[in-house]
Amino acid sequence: MSLAMLTAACDTGTGAAKPPKTTTLGVVEEFAAPAPAGSRTSMIVTDDKGSAYLSWTEQRADSSFAIRLAKWNGATWDSTRTIAADRPFFVNWADFPAITKLGNGDLAAHWLEREGASTYAYGIRTVRSRDDGRTWSAPVTPHTDGLAAEHGFVSLWADGGRNLGLVWLDGRKSAMKDSTREMTVRTAVVREDGTISKEAVLDARTCDCCQTATAKGTLGRVIVYRDRSDKDIRDIAIVRELVGGWSPPVLVHADDWYYPGCPVNGPQVAASGKTVVVAWYTAAHDTARVLVATSTDGGATFGAPVRIDEGDPIGRVSIVLDSRAEPIVAWLEQRTTDEAEVLVRRVTGTTVSETRSLARTSGARQSGFPRLAVLRDTLLATWTTTKPAPQVHVARLPLSSSAR
């Protein structure tokens, strides 16, 4: 490791020493994933009944794509189910489908479809299933502008018992005459009958292609994303859902990252009770870092961030909270010119656990974004390797006794 990397690894980004170690995670146990070779962009979600759902984008023998789903029942994966196929999908390494469980037990999903000749003219489609993913409703488009522009980087949530909430990056300004061509963050709710409500603009100028994220604690829902100032400072912002509507955006932390382009590296957030924890990547002041910041007042204010990477991060973070509301974070760390490692560690206050390596992969775009979920006393993880072809993987790690 170079002197510069050693120096970076000992700095939290706030001038403090690298945090000390805390209780480590259990041993990584990879188990067979239901997705065949050629699959990518996996996501995993869990429910309070002890089930886990894995979704992925699958490339078929004729080079077309399908959005697929399988359910883990605690012992095995059940039969694979198709969410959507034979449609004009927009398939992208960073802007990919997702699933969520609604309050009434329905599943909901989204994907992206091309809507024009332009490379980045695509729209969002949402569907729901009342029979655990075996059949799906007709797709609904949640944005009502009708313009051939970018609509993507979606995060989903259960809005009440039967409705689907979502937030996305919206590029409609790029299709308007005399527009400032700025990306915006917008939100809406798709009701059970397919009608749209609660449309709102959360931020009128944001980074162009970094993922959004959302979570809900006892003080309400929060949404995080990468902002973009008029001077191209691209730090992480948060909005909170209040009684009267959405709050104005504020920064989670002033990294002061000037970047005249999009890093395609969005934040992630998790919440429990009044605790909200955000993880993100920044390369402010020419130092790449993965940072974690915690709020104890529902996201209104945050403490100083803790640096958790090992000195040369690529980013692409995921975060969950264990039963003690302690964050567990996954990210990609560069190891050689051609190789990266998927790492995971717990953060307890200002201390961090030893890292656990999930796998070696590539830092290339096809390796995508690792994703985490908690199933009772177990951490579930999914990620993608790239050689000889893209392949989805799944593993579990027992959470230590301190997290039960």
Question: Can you describe this structure?
Answer:
- The radius of gyration is 20 Å and the shape is globular.
- The protein starts with a helix and ends in a 6-residue tail after the last strand.
- Helix content is 2%, strand content 47%.
- The protein contains 1 helix and 30 strands.
- The chain is mostly beta strands and 404 residues long.
- The N terminus is likely disordered.
- A hairpin with a 5-residue loop joins strand 4 and strand 5.
- Strands 1, 23, 24, 25, 26 and 27 form a 6-stranded mixed β-sheet that branches. Strands 14, 15, 16, 17 and 18 form a 5-stranded antiparallel β-sheet that branches. A 4-stranded antiparallel β-sheet has the order 2-30-29-28, with no helix packed on it.
What's this model, at a glance?
The protein has one helix spanning 3-9; strands at residues 21-22, 29-31, 40-46, 52-59, 65-72, 81-85, 98-101, 107-114, 122-129, 151-159, 163-170, 183-190, 196-206, 213-217, 220-226, 236-242, 245-246, 250-251, 268-272, 275-282, 289-295, 306-307, 313-321, 327-334, 340-348, 351-353, 356-361, 371-375, 378-385, 391-398.
Please tell me how large the radius of gyration is: 20 Å
**DSSP helix count?**
1
Residue share in helix: under 10%
Structural class call reads mainly beta
* Low-pLDDT residue spans: 1-17
Distance between the termini: 37 Å
Number of strands: 30
Average pLDDT confidence is 92
**Strand portion:** over 45%
Described by the principal axes of the CA atoms, the overall outline is globular
Query: What can be said about the biggest beta sheet?
Result: 6 strands, mixed
